[in-house]
Specification:
The complex is a heterodimer of chains A (500) and B (325). With 500 residues, chain A is mostly helical. Chain A is 71% helix and 1% strand. Chain A is built from 22 helices and 2 strands. The N and C termini of chain A lie far apart (66 Å). Chain B has 325 residues and is of the alpha/beta class. Chain B has 2 domains: 192 residues, D-Maltodextrin-Binding Protein, domain 2, CATH 3.40.190; 97 residues, Periplasmic binding protein-like II (D-Maltodextrin-Binding Protein, domain 2, 3-Layer(aba) Sandwich), CATH 3.40.190.10. Chain B starts with a helix and ends with a helix. The chains are: A mainly alpha (500), B alpha/beta (325).
C-alpha cells in the first residue's frame, strides 16, 4: 500500500495537476465563504466540466473545491457571525465571540489548523483502514441510526445556554418545521396547506441564513441607528497562534476528529451533525465549560475539527461500497463514474493507481490549504475593518443571492426573510437558535430510521434491545443523561434557588 | 385533484411568474430556439438522473444552437420540479427530465398539483430495467425460491424499497399483485441507502438499476434473480428475465424529456430533432458509456406511443396493487 501511495505522489507531481488542484481549492474557498453557496452546489455546478478533463486533473480539481468550500464556511461564521452552512454554525458561536473580543486572527488560525489536523488524520484512516471500517459501518442499520440520532439530540443541552427550557422549546420548533412536506414513507402531505410550494418542505439552508445572518444584520442595523458607531467595529491583529496556544486544544481536536471520522463513515450523518456533536462533547469534557459561547478557543477548534474530519471519512463508504453518504459525495461519485472510475468493491482492483494518486492528493491538498490559509488570513481579518454601513448591506446581498441559489426558488427568499425575523425575535427574547437548527437537522433522520426500524420489526420495539449495537448505544445514552442530571443536582454553580 | 385546488395553485404560480419576470410570448417556431433552454432535473444531485442531465446539458449547445441550462429542483420525490415545469410557459424553453414515476404513475394515484396531461413527450433518451437481487447469504437464489419463501413465511421477507410509488416500490407491488404473496418493504428513500441496508443484512432483497447493484453482483455480495425487461440484459447475459422465470413483471424505467402541455408541435419537433442529433455524437455516447448507461433513443412520435401504452399499464398496476387511496 505504501508503494501504491508513493506511486500516487509521483503521478501528482505534475505542475498542471498541482495548479488545477490549487485553483479548485481557491475556488472552493471563495464559494464556501459566501453565505448560502454550499460545497455541494459548487461541486455539482463544476462537476460536468471535469467530465472532459483527464481523471487526474478533473478529480483533484473537484476534491480541491470540496475541501476548500467546507473549510471556508468558517470564515464568515467567525468574522461576521453569518455561517452560510449548517456545518459552520457551531463555529460561529465561539469564533465570532473571539472576533468581537479583538482576536479574529487567532480564531481564523485555530479554525484553519484544527481543520487541517482533523482532515489529515481522517485521511490517514481512509487510506489505512477504509475497507475494515466500512465493513463495520455497513452493519450499522436503522435501529442503531435511530439511537445515534437520539443521542445527537442530547447535544441540545450543550448549546442551550443557561436556559434549558428555552432550548427545548427551540428544539421542538425546529422539529416541527422539519415535518413540513411529504411524509418520507407514505408520501402523505404534511402541513402543506394544499400548496405545491410546500411539498418540498422548508429548506434548511435559506432558513439558516435567515436565522443567523439576516438576524445579525438586523441587529447591527438597529445598533447603527441608535448610536452612529465608529467605522472600525473590530480591531486588527491580536495574538497569533503559537504552539503554547495550540497544545491545550489538541485533546479537543483529536476527540472531534474521532467523532467526525466515525460519524462521517456512517452513510447519512454528515458534517452538519458532526460539528454539533463535537462541540457538545468538547464542552462536556472541557475544564472551562463556562467559556463556551463566550469565545472559547476549544469551542472553535472542536467544531471545525468535527466538520472537517467528515470529508475524508465520507469517502470511505463511497470508495468501498460505491455508496454516497451525503449529497456531496453523491455528486463526487457521479464525477468519478464519468471518468470511468466506478467506486465500489472492485475499484481498488481495477484502478489502484488512480485511487492511490487521489489519496495522495488528499494529503497534499491539506498542506496546500494550510499554506494558502495562513497567507489568506492576513488579508481576510481586515474584513472586520470595513465600515458596518458598507459591509452588512453587501453581506445581505450575498444572503439573498445565496438563499435563491440553493434551489433556484423565490420561495426560499421568503423562507430566509421569515427566518431572519424569527431569529431576530429569538435573540431579543434570549431563545437560543442552535437548538432549533439541531432539531431541524436531526428530525428527518430520526423519523426515517425509527420508522424503518419499526417497519422491519413489524412494529415491535424489541429491535432496539436485541442488537449488540443498539444495546451499547442505549447504555451510552443512559450514562450521558444520568451524568447530566447528576451534575445539575450537584452543580456548585450559582443557579438561582428561587423559592426553595 | 379538485378544480378549486388546481385554480389556486395555478393562480399562485401565475402570480409568482408575473412578479418575477415578464412572461415571454410563445416564440415563433421558426425562430426556435432563440434563448437558452432550462432543463429541470427534479431529483437531488448525485443520482442517475442528475448524472445524465449533467452529460446532456454539457454537450448540448452544439446541437441546439443555444445552451441547455441544468436546473435542479428536487423535493417531494420529484413532484416539486414536475409541478414547476407543468406550470411554466409552454414555449419549449422549460423542459423536464422526466421518468415513469413522476410522469406516469404518481399523477394517476396521488393528488398532485399536475396531471398526466400536463406534459407532452419530447424525446426518450434511454431506459433501464430493474434487476431483482438478494443477499448472497440469504435463503433464496432464484425469484421462484424468493416467492416460495415469502409464501411460507408471510410478512417475514423484508426488502429494501425506495419511495412510495417509486421505481423499486412499484416493481415489488407488481410482483406481490401477480403472485399474491405478502412481503414487507422498508422505504429507504433511494437506491443507495436501500442497497446499503441489503448489504448490511437488515433486508433480504431489492430491485434496482444495474449501476447500483452491478459491482456487488460481480463482487459476489448480491445474487441476481431476474431482470424486469422483455429480453436479457447485455451486461448480465446469464440472468433470466422475470417473464422467463414465470413471473410477468416488466418495468422499464425510462429517462426522457417532457415539455409543458401546449408547447407548439413545431417546437417539440425541433427539440426532438436536436436530441436525436446529440445522441448520435461520439463524445456524448462515450460519456454515457462511462456511467454504465446506454442510449435507447425514441423521438417524440415513438415516445408518445410508448408513453400511451405505459400510462395504460400504470393504471393497471395501480388498480392491481391497490395503490389508489
Amino acid at each position: 500500500m505504501l508503494a501504491d501511495l508513493a506511486g500516487g505522489f509521483a503521478l501528482l507531481l505534475e505542475p498542471v495537476v498541482l495548479a488545477t488542484a490549487l485553483a479548485g481549492l481557491v475556488a472552493g474557498i471563495v464559494v464556501g465563504a459566501l453565505p448560502g453557496l454550499t460545497a455541494t452546489m459548487a461541486v455539482a455546478v463544476l462537476a460536468p466540466f471535469t467530465f472532459f478533463m483527464e481523471p487526474l486533473i478533473g478529480l483533484p480539481f473537484l476534491l480541491g473545491v470540496y475541501k476548500g468550500a467546507i473549510y471556508a464556511g468558517s470564515i464568515p461564521a467567525i468574522l461576521l457571525n453569518t455561517p452560510g452552512t449548517a456545518a459552520a454554525a457551531a463555529t460561529a458561536i465561539d469564533g465570532n465571540a473571539m472576533a468581537r473580543a479583538g482576536r479574529p486572527k487567532l480564531a481564523l488560525q485555530i479554525s484553519l489548523v484544527a481543520s487541517v489536523i482533523a482532515d489529515l488524520c481522517a485521511t490517514v484512516v481512509l487510506i489505512a483502514v477504509a475497507a475494515p471500517l466500512a465493513g463495520i459501518a455497513i452493519k450499522v442499520g436503522s435501529p442503531e441510526f435511530t439511537l445515534l440520532y437520539a443521542l445527537a439530540l442530547t447535544m441540545v443541552a450543550a448549546v442551550s445556554g443557561d436556559d434549558l427550557l428555552k432550548g427545548l422549546i427551540a428544539t421542538v420548533i425546529g422539529v416541527t418545521i422539519a415535518l413540513v412536506g411529504l411524509d418520507p414513507m407514505s408520501g402523505a402531505q404534511r402541513y402543506t396547506f394544499d400548496s405545491s410550494i410546500l411539498l418540498g418542505g422548508i429548506s434548511l439552508i435559506p432558513l439558516l441564513i435567515g436565522m443567523f445572518a439576516i438576524s445579525e444584520i438586523l441587529i447591527r442595523a438597529e445598533q447603527g441607528l441608535r448610536a452612529p458607531a465608529p467605522s472600525a467595529q473590530g480591531s486588527l491583529g491580536g495574538p497569533g497562534l503559537s504552539w503554547e496556544r495550540l497544545r491545550p486544544l489538541m485533546p479537543a481536536i483529536f476527540r472531534s476528529t474521532g467523532i467526525g471520522t466515525g460519524l462521517g463513515t456512517l452513510p447519512g450523518l454528515g458534517a452538519e451533525i458532526s460539528c454539533w456533536v463535537s462541540y457538545g462533547a468538547a464542552r462536556r469534557r472541557s475544564r472551562t465549560p463556562e467559556k463556551f459561547g463566550q469565545g472559547s478557543e476549544e469551542g472553535v477548534a472542536a467544531a471545525e475539527a468535527g466538520n472537517n474530519a467528515v470529508c475524508p471519512a465520507a469517502l470511505i463508504p463511497m470508495t468501498v461500497f460505491g455508496i454516497p453518504g451525503d449529497p456531496i459525495t453523491a455528486v463526487l461519485l457521479g464525477a468519478f463514474m464519468a471518468q470511468g472510475l466506478n467506486p465500489g468493491p472492485l475499484m481498488f482492483d481495477r484502478d489502484a493507481e488512480t485511487v492511490y494518486a487521489l489519496f495522495a492528493f488528499l494529503i497534499v491538498s491539506n498542506l496546500m490549504l494550510l499554506a494558502f490559509g495562513f497567507v489568506a488570513i492576513r488579508y481576510l481579518q481586515r474584513i472586520v475593518l470595513v465600515p458596518t454601513g458598507l459591509l452588512y448591506p453587501a453581506v445581505a446581498a450575498f444572503c439573498f443571492a445565496g438563499a435563491y441559489a440553493v434551489n433556484n426558488s423565490t420561495f426560499d427568499i421568503v423562507i430566509m426573510m421569515a427566518g431572519g425575523l424569527a431569529g431576530y425575535a429569538m435573540r431579543k427574547t434570549g431563545m437560543p437558535i442552535p437548538p432549533l437548527v439541531i432539531g431541524m437537522l436531526l428530525a428527518p433522520g430520526l423519523e426515517n430510521s425509527l420508522r424503518q426500524s419499526l417497519t422491519a420489526s413489524g412494529g415491535s420495539l424489541s429491535i432496539f434491545v436485541t442488537r449488540p449495537g443498539t444495546l451499547a448505544l442505549l447504555a451510552v445514552m443512559v450514562l450521558l443523561v444520568g451524568l447530566f442530571l447528576w451534575r445539575r443536582r450537584h452543580s456548585p454553580q450559582p443557579t438561582p434557588k428561587g423559592e426553595h | 385533484m379538485t378544480t378549486k385546488k388546481a385554480l389556486l395553485t395555478r393562480s399562485a404560480a401565475i402570480a409568482l411568474v408575473g412578479a418575477g419576470t415578464v412572461a415571454a410570448l410563445p416564440a415563433l417556431a421558426d425562430d426556435f430556439p432563440s434563448q437558452q433552454i432550462e432543463f429541470v432535473t427534479p431529483y437531488p444531485p448525485g443520482g442517475s438522473h442528475s448524472l445524465h442531465a449533467g452529460i446532456i446539458t454539457t454537450g448540448a449547445e452544439e446541437f441546439f444552437g443555444v445552451s441547455l441550462v441544468s436546473t435542479t429542483r428536487d423535493g417531494g420525490g420529484g413532484a416539486v420540479g414536475a409541478t414547476e415545469v407543468a406550470e411554466a410557459t409552454p414555449d419549449g424553453y422549460t423542459l423536464l427530465f422526466g421518468d415513469p414515476t413522476i410522469n406516469s404513475l404518481r399523477p394517476q394515484v396521488e393528488d398532485l398539483a399536475y396531471d398526466v396531461d400536463s406534459f407532452v413527450p419530447v424525446a426518450r433518451i434511454n431506459y433501464s430495467p430493474a434487476v431483482f437481487v438478494a443477499a448472497a447469504d440469504g435463503p433464496f437464489e432464484t425469484i421462484a425460491e424468493m416467492v416460495d419463501y415469502a409464501e411460507e413465511n408471510p410478512g417475514d421477507l423484508v426488502y429494501s424499497s425506495d419511495n412510495v410509488n417509486g421505481w423499486t416500490y412499484t416493481i415489488f407491488e407488481l410482483l406481490k399483485a401477480r403472485t399474491g404473496v405478502d412481503m414487507t418493504g422498508v422505504e429507504y428513500g433511494g437506491g443507495g441507502p436501500a442497497v446499503t441496508r441489503l448489504l448490511g443484512g437488515d433486508t433480504m432483497a431489492y430491485a434496482g438499476d444495474i449501476s447500483v447493484v452491478g459491482d456487488h453482483i460481480e463482487d459476489g455480495a448480491l445474487v441476481p434473480l431476474c431482470v424486469t425487461d422483455d429480453e436479457r440484459m447485455e451486461a448480465l447475459p446469464d440472468v433470466p428475465t422475470c417473464t422467463e422465470e414465470g413471473f410477468d413483471v416488466v418495468f422499464q424505467f425510462w429517462r426522457g424529456v417532457m415539455a409543458p402541455a401546449g408547447t407548439p408541435d413545431e417546437v417539440v419537433e425541433s427539440l426532438s430533432d436536436s436530441f436525436a442529433a446529440m445522441v448520435e455524437d461520439d463524445g456524448f455516447q462515450n460519456l454515457i458509456g462511462q456511467i454504465n448507461s446506454t442510449i435507447d433513443f425514441a423521438d417524440h412520435e415513438e415516445f408518445a406511443e410508448l408513453w400511451e401504452q405505459e400510462l395504460a399499464d400504470m393504471a393497471e398496476i395501480a388498480e392491481m396493487a391497490g395503490a389508489e387511496d
